[in-house]
Each structure stands twice: as structure tokens, then as C-alpha cells.
Recover the amino acids of this structure.
């Protein structure tokens, strides 16, 4: 106990640093080593071979990576745009309602806390061709059933809808707090000066909400980039490569094709892309004076 | 200690700040009702499906005769490991939550109180941020390789350690915000009265940040319970967690849709319970990081 007290300053940070070094920094360093190697398992032992160019050759031969990158970008842009627009609109609309806000907040937290896998499995049932709620509704009004997850042109958009459902509440919660913190005097002054409701939103509220919107945008963009669980459940990347995303492809390279070396190369590229985006995002947040 | 800083005060339930009115509330009320319906509708539909026989799900009949058979089959059926998966998830989530609270609270306090050189705290916090943003999938490959080498592949220890690592950034940032609000003078008074530094931390400062520990603990538990890609990649059938089990349900050749719905509902129960117990803590936990 005496030792703990005397050296508290020094050891207090140690467990966290040790954990980060062993489980994040060392693995990232290992990624570099893996990315120039071919790793095989023979009789339970890892056999590393130094093959600096083999993984680059695999990258060149990889026909899935290009659609995966394209799908990921499309997914992130479409989902985050919709989430921001809907979340902001909802937060502004709800601000004028006098009652039931606590209840709405409770409901809105729900999708954020439910296991993403459960959300994927739930929506897989909702989208089911034979008995899902959407096709039930279509049949009820005499329209033909739609293959929501099985059609190459539609599957990615069905996945976007699930992500929007999942994350509009998050944008809403951030913006809801921001709207509540808006200076009442400024809004009153604008109204006294004869601003219409649309002008009030467009010229006064949105500019004041910009910092919160940028925060929500950056958070959502990064999280959308990481999406895996729901899509793994819903489509696993299919049909064909129509919903193949970077993270899904990475999983398949690692654990279905057992290409640990090539997977490491992809991982490094992905980390580099994220860091670049973080730097850009930080500048955007600074520019919005967050 | 007449008035405590804002973060330490117990948040009052339902104490939402009054927002500026935007004129009449009709459009707002309609949007609100629609949003609630859109969120709850899918849950309600799945809930009813979980009480239906497969045949009733297909026919879409209404009203239907409810049955517990899906839940019974999922939780107690001879061909189902789901009960074991639940136990396993509870063990991993509890252990990793306890561990991340200890490690995270210590680190957050250390960074907040002790004057670490700027490069130490800057590097640490910067890296937590970067790590938090990286898709965890990028590190699963090296984790897999390292855990196999160490003989930790397919052990609970591997899952606990990785979940602690994944939840550490959130815990550190959250706890730092709470420690920041504890007046330094309280500790100084304790030290003058003869408290040693570690003692002062345990007996004086920690009790003041219990709301923060609850918020971080609830979130860490839920994230660990929900975590899928690591559990999928680092465990085999015996140690599968609930999300992995649900994924297997959804990929069977002959999907039992009612059981899939029931398993999904069971998987959301911890989140519901924790939310009912500590919603006010969760809201602050989820928004604090974004606002500060």
C-alpha cells in the first residue's frame, strides 16, 4: 500500500499505456511486418515467409477491392447525408413541441444501444421476400413483391435505409441538445423583426447549429466507415459484390481466404485513409469553431 | 462544498432545458409521432414475430395464437447453445467492464491531475482518438496472429483484453471530463488531513465521480455485449457470444425465423434493462464526448 501511494503518479497511467502498446501499437507495427509476408499455418504453427511483392500482386489481382471502395464511399455519403438532414430536421421540429420530449429521447436511444447484429437480423426479417413487412404492405395494396436484399440495384440502398434508421437518433440527440441551447433572445429578435418561420430556420438557427452539425457529421462519417455487423447479417456483401464494403472484404481476406499478409496490407491502407480523413475532419471542425 | 460543479450534481430526471418555441407545435407533433412510430414499429413487428409459429409468420395471419415455443427452443432447446452464449457474453462483458473502469479511471485521473509532459498526454489522448476511429477489423488480423502464438486464441481472456482495449478510449475521455469537475481543493484538504495520494484518490475523488463511473460502465458493458467482429474472429463455437450466435441463426440453411426474432429480442434485453436503470447517465455519456 505504501508503495502504491508513493509512486501513484507513475503507475496510474501504466496499465492503460501497457494495454495500448501491447494491443494496438504492437499490432499496428506487426501489420507492417505481415504486409510483406506470407503466413501459413502448418501443424498449428505459423510459418512466415518474406515475400515483399506477393501481397502487392494480390492487390492488383483483387477484383473485389474496387467495388468495395466504391460501395463504401457511396454508402457513407448517402447514409450520412440522409441521417444529418433527417436528424437536424427532426430536432428543429421537435423543439416546438411542448410535451413528450423525454419519451422521444428514450425511444431514440434504443437503436443506439441495441446490438447491431440484432438490428441486422431484425431487418433481415423485415425485408424478407415472402413475409417481410414491406412486401406484406406492397401485396396488401396490390403491388408486386420486391426483392429488397437480393437485387443488385436495390440491395445497397436497403442497407443504407437500415443504417439511417439506426443512426438518425444519434444525430437527433446531439442536435436536440444544441437546439435546446440556442439563445432564445436571438430567435425572439428575429421573429420580432418579421422573419418567417423558414427564414428563422434557414438564416438564424442553422448557422447557429453549424458547430453541432459538423460534430455529428464527422462522428457519423467515421462510424459509417466502420460499419460491419449489420451488413454482414443482411447481405454479407452480396448479391455479387453489390453491397461489398471495405470492412467486409477485409474480414473475408483475413478469415475466409486466410490471406493474413494481404489483409495486413489492406488494413494499413485503411488506417492511412482514416488518419487522413481525421486530419481533414479536424480542420473542418476548427473552421466551424467547435 | 456548498455547490458542486455541474457534472457532479445528480441530473434530475426529465429536467430538459426549455428550447425556443418555433410557433405552433402541430408539424412538430406530427414529425415526433412519425419518428417514434418509425423507431418502434420494427421492434414491435419483430416482437410479434418472436411469438409466432413459422407458419403464422409466413401467412401473416392476424390475430394469431401466441406461443412461447421460439423462446423455449432458443434458450432451452437441445440443439441450441444460446443459453451458454448468453452466459459467456455476460462473463466477458462483466469482466471487461470492471477492468476497463479500473484502467480507464486511473489513466483519466492521472492525465487530469498529474502534470505529465505535454508529449505524454498528447500522444496518449491523440492515439486513443485515432484508435477509436480505426475500424477494429484492421487490427483483428494481428490480434489473431498474436493470440495464436500465445495460445490465447479462442479464450475468454483474449475477448476480455480486446474489449477492454476497444472501450478504453471512450472510458478515458468520459472519466477525464468528470474528474475535471472535481475541485482540486477537496483533495488538497484530504492530503493536508493526512491522506496519501492513492488513498485520497480512492476515498475522496472516486466517490465524487460515481455518476461518471456508472455512465462509462453502462456504455462499456453494452458495447462489449454488442461487440461482433472480434468475437466472430477470435472464438470458435464453444466460446461464441450472443451476437455471434445470432449471426449463425441468420445463416443456417433452413432459417427458423421465429427463433431468429426471439434471439434478437433476448439480445436486446440487457440494453433495455440498463437503459431503464440509468438513462440519464447514458444520455450524458453519449453526448458528453461529442459536446465537449
Amino acid at each position: 500500500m505504501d508503495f502504491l501511494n508513493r509512486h501513484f503518479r507513475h503507475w496510474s497511467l501504466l496499465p492503460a499505456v501497457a494495454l495500448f502498446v501491447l494491443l494496438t501499437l504492437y499490432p499496428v507495427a506487426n501489420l507492417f511486418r505481415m504486409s510483406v509476408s506470407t503466413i501459413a499455418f502448418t501443424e498449428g504453427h505459423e510459418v512466415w515467409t518474406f515475400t515483399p511483392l506477393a501481397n502487392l500482386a494480390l492487390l492488383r489481382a483483387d477484383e473485389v477491392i474496387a467495388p468495395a471502395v466504391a460501395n463504401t464511399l457511396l454508402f457513407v455519403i448517402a447514409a450520412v447525408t440522409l441521417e444529418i438532414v433527417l436528424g437536424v430536421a427532426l430536432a428543429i421540429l421537435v423543439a416546438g413541441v411542448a410535451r413528450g420530449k423525454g419519451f422521444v429521447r428514450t425511444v431514440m436511444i434504443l437503436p443506439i444501444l441495441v446490438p447491431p447484429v440484432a438490428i441486422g437480423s431484425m431487418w433481415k426479417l423485415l425485408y424478407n421476400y415472402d413475409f417481410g413487412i414491406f412486401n406484406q404492405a406492397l401485396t396488401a395494396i396490390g403491388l408486386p413483391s420486391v426483392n429488397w436484399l437480393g437485387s443488385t440495384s436495390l440491395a445497397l440502398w436497403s442497407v443504407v435505409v437500415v443504417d439511417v434508421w439506426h443512426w438518425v437518433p444519434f444525430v437527433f440527440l446531439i442536435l436536440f441538445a444544441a437546439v435546446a441551447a440556442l439563445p432564445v433572445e436571438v430567435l425572439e429578435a428575429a421573429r420580432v423583426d418579421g422573419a418567417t418561420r423558414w427564414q428563422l430556420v434557414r438564416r438564424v438557427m442553422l448557422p447557429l447549429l453549424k458547430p453541432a452539425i459538423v460534430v455529428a457529421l464527422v462522428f457519423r462519417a467515421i462510424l459509417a466507415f466502420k460499419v460491419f455487423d449489420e451488413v454482414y447479417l443482411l447481405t454479407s456483401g452480396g448479391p455479387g459484390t453489390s453491397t461489398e464494403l471495405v470492412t467486409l472484404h477485409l474480414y473475408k481476406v483475413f478469415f475466409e481466404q486466410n490471406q493474413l499478409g494481404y489483409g495486413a496490407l489492406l488494413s494499413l491502407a485503411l488506417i492511412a485513409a482514416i488518419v487522413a480523413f481525421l486530419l481533414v475532419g479536424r480542420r473542418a471542425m476548427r473552421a466551424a469553431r467547435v | 462544498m456548498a455547490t458542486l460543479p455541474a457534472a457532479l450534481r445528480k441530473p434530475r430526471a426529465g429536467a430538459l432545458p426549455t428550447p425556443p418555441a418555433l410557433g405552433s407545435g402541430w408539424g412538430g407533433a406530427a414529425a415526433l409521432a412519425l419518428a417514434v412510430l418509425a423507431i418502434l414499429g420494427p421492434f414491435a413487428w419483430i416482437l410479434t414475430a418472436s411469438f409466432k409459429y413459422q407458419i403464422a409468420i409466413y401467412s401473416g395471419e392476424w390475430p394469431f395464437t401466441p406461443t412461447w415455443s421460439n423462446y423455449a427452443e432458443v434458450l432451452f432447446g437441445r440443439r441450441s447453445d444460446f443459453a451458454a452464449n448468453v452466459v459467456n457474453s455476460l462473463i466477458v462483458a462483466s469482466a471487461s467492464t470492471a477492468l476497463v473502469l479500473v484502467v480507464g479511471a486511473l489513466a483519466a485521473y492521472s492525465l487530469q491531475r498529474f502534470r505529465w509532459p505535454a508529449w505524454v498526454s498528447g500522444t496518449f489522448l491523440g492515439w486513443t482518438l485515432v484508435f477509436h476511429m480505426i475500424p477494429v477489423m484492421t487490427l483483428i488480423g494481428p490480434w489473431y496472429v498474436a493470440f495464436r502464438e500465445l495460445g490465447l486464441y479462442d479464450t475468454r481472456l483474449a475477448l476480455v483484453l480486446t474489449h477492454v482495449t476497444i472501450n478504453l478510449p471512450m472510458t478515458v475521455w468520459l472519466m477525464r471530463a468528470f474528474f475535471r469537475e472535481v475541485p482540486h481543493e477537496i483533495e488538497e484538504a484530504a492530503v493536508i488531513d493526512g491522506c496519501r495520494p492513492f488513498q485520497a484518490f480512492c476515498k475522496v475523488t472516486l466517490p465524487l465521480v460515481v455518476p461518471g463511473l456508472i455512465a462509462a460502465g453502462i456504455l462499456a458493458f453494452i458495447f462489449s455485449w454488442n461487440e461482433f467482429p472480434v468475437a466472430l474472429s477470435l472464438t470458435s463455437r464453444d466460446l461464441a457470444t450472443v451476437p455471434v450466435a445470432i449471426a449463425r441463426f441468420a445463416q443456417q440453411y433452413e432459417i427458423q425465423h421465429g427463433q431468429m426474432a426471439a434471439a434478437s429480442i433476448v439480445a436486446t434485453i440487457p440494453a433495455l434493462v440498463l437503459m431503464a436503470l440509468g438513462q440519464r447517465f447514458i444520455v450524458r455519456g453519449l453526448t458528453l464526448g461529442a459536446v465537449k
The radius of gyration of chain B is 23 Å.
